[in-house]
Amino acid sequence: MRWRSAARAGRGAMMTYILRSLVCAFLLLIAGSAGALDPAREVGQFHHTAWTVNQGAPGQVTALAQTADGYLWLGTEIGLYRFDGVRFTRFAPTGTEAFPATSVSTLYAPPGGGLWVGFRYGGVSLIEGGHVRHYGQADGLPTSTVYRFAEDGSGRLWAATFTGPVMLHARRWQRPPAAMAYPGRQGRTLFTDRDGTLWVATEIGMVVLRRGAATFERVPAVVGRVSQIAQAPDGAIWVAEADGGVRALAAPGTASPNAQPDAPAASAGLLFDRDGVLWATTLGTGLVRRSPARAAEGFESFRRRDGLSSDYLQPLLEDREGNLWVGSSRGLDRFRHANLVQVPMPEGAQDFAIAADGDALLVGTRNHALQRVQMDSWLALPLRSAITAMHRDAEGGTWLGGPEGLWRLHGGRFEEVSGLPVALRSGVQAIATTPDGAVWLSLNTPGLHRLYQGRWTHLQDIADLPSNGSPLAMQVDAGGRLWLGFARNIAVVLEHGKAVTPWTGEPLDVGNVTALFEDAHGMWIGGERGLARVSGGRLRNVLVDVREDLRGISGIVADAAGDVWFNGARGVVRVRAGDVAGLFGGHGSPRYERFNALDALPGIAAQFRPLPTAARTDDGRLWFATTSGLVSIDPRQIVRNPVAPPVEVLSVTVDGAAVPIRDGQVQLPAGPRNLRIRYTALSLSIPERVRFRYQLDGLDSQWMEGAARSALYNAPGSGRYVFRVRASNNDGVWNEQGAELVVTVAPHYWETGWFRVLCVVAAAALLWLLYLARLRQLAARIRTRLDERHRERERIARELHDTLLQSTQGLILRLHASSRKLAPTDPVRLELEAAMTMAERVGADGRERVRGLRGDVDHARDLGAALMAVLDESHGLDTPVVRLVVEGTPRPMQRCASEEAYMIGREAMLNAFRHAKAGTVQVSLGYGRHAFRLRVDDDGIGFSQEAGTAEGHWGLAGMHERAARAGGTVAIRSGRPGRGTGIDLQIPAAFAWESPYRPGFAGLRDRVRAALKRLRPAARG
User: Fold this and answer.
1) Given its phi and psi angles, is residue 763 left (phi above 0), alpha (psi -120 to 50 degrees) or beta?
2) How many CA atoms are closer than 13 Å to the CA of 34, on its beta-carbon side?
3) How far apart are CA 115 and CA 135, in angstroms?
4) How many CB atoms lie within 10 A of CB 73?
5) Mapped to the 3 state alphabet, what secondary structure does 272-320 carry?
6) What is the pLDDT of residues 312-323, one digit of tens each?
7) Contact (Cβ atoms closer than 8 angstroms) between residue 408 and residue 398
8) Whole-structure pTM value
9) b/e per residue, 211-240, with b = 16+ CB within 10 A?
10) What are the tens digits of pLDDT across the range 240-276?
């Protein structure tokens, strides 16, 4: 059953294992209160499931155990398996942890966790903390089959082997020392009772080692080949013998009782469940059971013909939820509690008409006599006619109708009331009685008939009553009115001889009306398509969201608590009294509980006849008829499963390839397309009803819920995620802690930090290249302009040379010729010679300017020397001391830069000579990597920069213009008397230095070669 809602939407590994085991142990600690197998029921009334090789189970199961994490382990002749209730998985370690053998002979799960595995022909392994440790001959273990494990009262682990028992001490197996007086050579099985006494079956009898004792004691009882030992609730020790059956041993010192007369002759497994019921397996005759609550029946059996996977059985196990597991030669069987109890009926009985009869149920069928049925038995009554309808009247009498007539059962006596009021053979569809004493019959001839005071009346002239129609269901309400349900959404009330519909609201939408029932909530109308209710004069259909689970309703009944039960096509549905309003959109969401085949419900509710299919007996039990049998349930004794299931993440696959999980974490490659995470929950009772909630933090915005045991994600991005999963058992008890898995998806290279840094660097480099390209563009423009200027200057130089200089030279020659005509002492000659000297200076200065215009000047070759030559231009001025300071290695400069620098320096020096009254002038040239720098500093009187930029004074403005033409800047420091003046010119390297590389692609090749030359010495180093 389940609650449903329409509104649901190394050290690290060891610590992980320990924490998980502690959580699982806590969750399973309360398993003692879980529903065990009812001792009062027959074994066939439990829910039985068989897994064979066809369903994936391994064959030849030789041992069973349940570990602290909830897994069921199966030892077989072909290996070790574990089972989570859904899937069998072979446990096969690899490498150094691989098992020493394949055939498993015994299993033992200590309460503290782990699993001991014993092998046929020797060898023991311990599975604990995610690792496997093996014990063999080197560890003191004999090379013979291990039959059983047990811990004695002092906590020592013992193993029974073919060559005798051994005990584990300090990680070594030891045989009992001679002082312990072990009498035999073999140890066929062993068992520790509730007092801590260790029982060992040998080839010569039974011996015990009491808690705290130092020696073994022999038990004076004759035993055969004992395969298992168990202790009954009264403290008696029972044995299962392969050659002597199942029997109890007397206490030491007393005579041994004989085997039970109806006990199996050869048994391999023995178990007392938590209710003291004895279960035993046999080697060919199936499963046997002996319950104290059914002591009169003795041993009852369940065999392959009853659905058992095989009659050859060996191990037995009761898990923490109260389920019983049986290992067979063909697979695995489970017996579990079911709240619905299948009621025994005669073989082949079909079509059940039911009605309460005190604490029992009357059941009529088409092919058997009327039966009086109780939980575990039935009694055939004298009425052998086919019964197709029943009705219990207000006086406690039961009306029974069939093709052969109408009967009434009252006080244990049958009374034949009448034959049917039709000549043709007809079945009875429904029966009802009204307070006036009339009996109403619906026949399938069709027609509605009324029996009153011994006379039949065929009602066929009533207005609004379907002509030639037969009611499928009839019900008398608290007011004595008769309600009739027909096919095709028709329901009416017979009142004062008329068919009326005394309600408003929604139109009826249930299809064929197959059930009518009145309780405190109103009149319920069930049909093939859904459910409706008339309450307070209004009709309402159930919500669309719940209609699927409430379709095919053919039986409605209420229990003593007011809860309403519906028998329909989807099973038996229970709605608590407080949840009824939610079905119709009232307060709260729709909530209900559904019982189906997983709760031992055979078939579905009958949809045609006999109706109704639900009844309540005087003891409060509810009964439901289906197409395949009868079931009963006591609403006051519904057993719940309180054990929250442990949850585990099983595996991770990426694009179909498995990825290992380490310490609760998984590392995934970049760009996974399909990520699947498999998980499970260890609830073995009804694993089909286990529900999961999961969420991948960082991707899922809310919890996802469903029954699937895997989650699929498409193309999760890079980053760190946390996968969380929780689970609930079959009764909705949630394990809120659940399990977690840290999932890390590696980033693509373009998502890494180094790539982002590289992109930033590349972007910066690109910007820098753009900047350099812009500088080169500007430099090219400047060079173009300079070339134009240079050509213009050459033209001017030619003109000056051809005109002015030649004319000057001709003037000098004429003056020289004229002066030669005068006497040497003639004052005129002296004046002419002075004029010729002045003319020669003008000519020399002109020639110098022509050389400057052609670019053939000293500053192009040596800027420092050219600037120092400015002293020669002072023409007799009182020049100060001039110092030249050169920083860095002089290098060739671009023509524009050197020319403008020279002109700015010359202007600054001449200004200092003429106006500063300075004692010292320092010229500094800086040949830096990133820029060229020229500084001219004096210690003169300084000047006001406002005066320097006044109208008519163009020296400072000219400096700024020249600096701009060269692609640089000039700064002028002055203004405070006595602090002198400083001129500071800076030209970036791109505009200052001559490039050593050729232009275009040739220059690119030059740069690459230069870079390679710089790298070669570094590589050699």
Assistant:
1) alpha
2) 30
3) 13
4) 22
5) ECCCCCEEEEEECCCEEEECHHHHHHCCEEECHHHCCCCCEEEEEEECC
6) 999 999 999 999
7) yes
8) 0.75
9) eeeeebeebebebbebbbbbbeeeeebbbb
10) 988 878 888 865 444 445 556 556 678 889 999 999 9
